[in-house]
Specification:
This protein has 535 residues and is α+β, with helices and mostly antiparallel strands. The chain has three domains: 4-130, Immunoglobulin-like; 168-361; 374-531, Alpha-Beta Plaits. The chain has helices at 4-9, 12-16, 131-166, 169-189, 207-227, 230-233, 235-243, 245-256, 264-288, 293-317, 324-364, 374-391, 405-412, 414-430, 455-470, 499-515; strands spanning 40-44, 56-61, 68-72, 77-81, 97-100, 111-115, 125-130, 395-402, 437-442, 445-451, 474-476, 479-481, 485-491, 521-523, 530-531. A hairpin with a 4-residue loop joins strand 3 (68-72) and strand 4 (77-81). The chain has 16 helices and 15 strands.
C-alpha cells in the first residue's frame, strides 16, 4: 500500500511506471480498505507465475459504491470497476467487482489498484481465482439471486391481482413495502443496474439503498398494523407503533441530501430507530398472536428475517467476513417472508369474501326459514320474467298461504308457529326442481317461481307440495301439529306482463282457493284447470 500522504498526491502515470514502487509498504491484512477523504493505491503481485489452465480473475468484495481503477500489465491501461456501472457490457455479475487478468501473468509482475476516496471506510478484500472456477461460482450466484428476486416479484404480482379484485388497503401496503424491499435488495447486490431503467438510479449513488430502505419502513409498519389487526387487538401498542412511522418519513428527504454521505450520525440514527421500531413491532405482534390468526401468519413469515438481520448486523459491527450462508440467507428469508405473507393475504381475502358472502346471504334471505326474503324474491322474479320473455319460454308462479295459521300461534304459541313455518318451507323446497326457487312473501305466505314450467307442470308441482304438507307432522314443545296450505297458480301471459301483475293474478287465485274451502290449488282465470282437495 502506498502511504496516504503520497497516495493523495500520486499521479496514475507515475505509479504505473513504477516511480513509487519503493514507497509501497506491505500490508499484513488480507484487506485493501479505502480511506475516508483520500484515495489509496495498492500494488498487488503474485508470489509465483500463473500456471492454471484458464486466466486469472481478480475480484473485490465489499467495494460496494467505491470506484476502483485497475491497471493491468502489460499495457497498464486503466480499467474502471464500479458497482453502478451501466455503460459497458458486464462479463460478470455484480456479486463482486471482477476483472480478467492476462493468462501469462508472472510472479512479481504488479497490478496497481487505485481505490477512490469515500465517506466511510470499507473492508475491501481482493481475491484471485481461475476463470473457470470464478465463472462457476458467479453462475451459482446469478441463479440464487434470480430465484429469490423472482419469488418476491411473483408474490408482488399475486398481491396486485388480489388488489385489483378486492381493492383492500392492506394489499397496497404489502405491494409498496415489498416492492421497495426488492429494489433495495437489488441495489445492494447491484443487479438492478443491469435492468432497463437502472441507469436512472446511478446519480443517486449510495443514497439509493438508503432511500428505498427508508421508503419501505413506514409502509412495512402500516402493513403490520392492518394485516395483524393490531389496532383492535393491542390498541395502545399499535398507537405507539403508528407514531414510529413518522421519523422514517422525516429521514427520507434528509437521506437524499448531499451531506448525508458525509454524516455518520444520520446513518447511525436511522439504524438505531430501525432496530427500535423492529423490536417494538415484534413485541406488539407477539402480544397479538395469542388472539389473532393473521399475527401468527406474520410471525412465521417475519421471524427468520429478524434472525438473519440480527446476524448480519453483528457481522458488520464485528467486521467479520460474510459467510456464504449469511450472504444468501437474508434474501432467502425475504423471499420466504413474501410467500408466507402472500398466503396470509390470500387467507385474509378469502375470509373477507366469505364474510361478505354471508352478509349478502343474510341480506337476501329470511332469517327464520332461510328462503329468499321479499326484496330478493321480487328482484329475482323481475329478472326471471325478463329472461323468459327473451327466450320465449314459459314461466309459472305459485302463491301459497298456510291455512288457519293464526290459530296455531294462538293455541300453541309463537315458537310452535315458527316451527311450522320452517317445516313448511323445507317441505316446499323438497318438491322443487334445481331451477326453481322459493321465497317468503310475508307472514305465512310463500311464493314459488317455476322458470320454464307450463301450466300443467305447475299444477302438478303444486299438487305434490300440497299433498306433502297435508301429511306433514310438525313436532314442537311436546306437541305434534298438522297444517295445510292453499295455493294460487298464475302463468306468464306475454311480453308486457310484469312481476306485479303475475303476483296479483296468483294472489287472486289464492283468494279463490281460500274461499272455496282451503287445502286446494286454484289456477287463475281464464285458465280452466282447477284441482280441488277437500280439507
Amino acid at each position: 500500500m502506498l502511504p496516504d500522504a503520497r497516495a493523495s498526491a500520486a499521479q496514475a502515470e507515475d505509479v504505473v511506471r513504477g516511480t513509487h514502487d519503493a514507497a509501497f509498504a506491505p500490508v499484513r491484512s488480507p484487506y485493501t480498505p479505502n480511506a475516508a477523504g483520500t484515495q489509496r493505491w495498492y500494488r498487488l503481485v503474485l508470489d509465483r507465475d500463473w500456471n492454471q489452465p484458464t486466466s486469472p480473475v481478480l475480484s473485490f468484495t465489499g467495494a460496494a459504491y467505491v470506484p476502483l481503477t485497475v491497471y493491468v500489465p502489460p499495457d497498464y491501461r486503466p480499467q474502471r470497476l464500479w458497482f453502478a456501472q451501466t455503460a459497458a457490457v458486464q462479463r460478470f455479475s455484480r456479486h463482486r467487482l471482477a476483472l480478467e487478468l492476462p493468462h501469462d501473468l508472472r510472479a512479481g509482475q504488479p497490478v496497481y489498484v487505485q481505490v477512490a476516496a469515500d465517506s466511510f471506510t470499507r473492508p475491501i478484500k481482493p481475491a484471485l481465482a481461475d476463470l473457470a472456477t470464478y465463472q462457476d461460482e458467479d453462475l451459482d450466484h446469478v441463479r440464487l439471486a434470480t430465484l429469490f428476486a423472482s419469488v418476491q416479484f411473483t408474490m408482488i404480482l399475486a398481491a396486485l391481482c388480489l388488489w385489483l379484485l378486492l381493492r383492500d388497503r392492506v394489499l397496497v401496503y404489502f405491494i409498496g413495502y415489498a416492492s421497495f424491499q426488492l429494489i433495495y435488495q437489488m441495489l445492494v447486490s447491484g443487479e438492478i443496474y443491469q435492468l432497463p431503467g437502472g441507469a436512472l438510479l446511478v446519480p443517486l449513488g449510495t443514497h439509493a439503498p438508503w432511500l428505498f430502505a427508508a421508503l419501505s419502513a413506514p409502509l412495512s409498519i402500516s402493513f403490520i398494523l392492518e394485516f395483524c389487526n393490531l389496532r383492535e387487538i393491542t390498541p395502545r401498542a399499535a398507537r405507539i407503533l403508528g407514531w414510529m412511522r413518522w421519523p422514517f418519513l422525516v429521514a427520507i428527504p434528509l437521506l437524499c441530501l448531499p451531506f448525508a454521505e458525509r454524516t455518520q450520525w444520520l446513518a447511525s440514527a436511522y439504524n438505531l430507530w430501525f432496530m427500535l421500531s423492529s423490536l417494538w413491532s415484534l413485541g406488539t405482534v407477539l402480544l397479538a398472536a395469542r388472539h389473532g390468526r393473521q399475527a401468527r401468519f406474520f410471525l412465521i413469515a417475519w421471524m427468520p428475517q429478524v434472525l438473519f438481520t440480527f446476524l448480519r448486523v453483528c457481522q458488520v459491527l464485528l467486521r467479520l467476513d460474510q459467510p456464504r450462508w449469511l450472504e444468501y440467507g437474508f434474501p432467502f428469508t425475504m423471499a420466504f417472508s413474501s410467500i408466507v405473507v402472500t398466503i396470509g393475504l390470500a387467507d385474509l381475502s378469502l375470509r373477507a369474501r366469505r364474510e361478505r358472502d354471508v352478509a349478502h346471504h343474510l341480506a337476501d334471505h329470511d332469517a327464520l326459514t332461510g328462503v329468499l326474503n321479499r326484496r330478493a324474491l321480487l328482484r329475482r322474479l323481475h329478472a326471471a320474467i325478463a329472461e323468459a320473455n327473451r327466450q320465449r319460454a314459459p314461466l309459472a308462479l305459485l302463491f301459497l298461504d298456510m291455512d288457519h295459521f293464526k290459530s296455531v300461534n294462538d293455541r300453541y304459541g309463537h315458537q310452535a308457529g315458527d316451527a311450522c313455518l320452517r317445516a313448511v318451507a323445507e317441505a316446499i323446497a323438497d318438491e322443487l326442481r334445481p331451477s326453481d326457487w322459493l321465497g317468503r312473501y310475508g307472514g305465512e305466505e310463500f311464493v314459488v317461481c317455476l322458470p320454464g314450467a307450463t301450466h300443467e307442470q305447475a299444477m302438478a308441482i303444486g299438487e305434490r307440495i300440497r299433498h306433502g304438507i297435508e301429511h306433514l307432522h310438525v313436532h314442537s314443545r311436546g306437541c305434534s301439529l298438522q297444517t295445510t296450505i292453499s295455493m294460487g297458480v298464475a302463468s306468464l301471459q306475454g311480453d308486457a306482463d310484469t312481476s306485479d301483475e303475475l303476483i296479483a293474478r296468483a294472489d287472486n287465485a289464492l283468494y279463490r282457493a281460500k274461499t272455496d274451502g282451503r287445502n286446494r290449488i286454484v289456477a287463475h282465470a281464464p285458465l280452466p284447470a282447477t284441482v280441488c282437495k277437500s280439507a
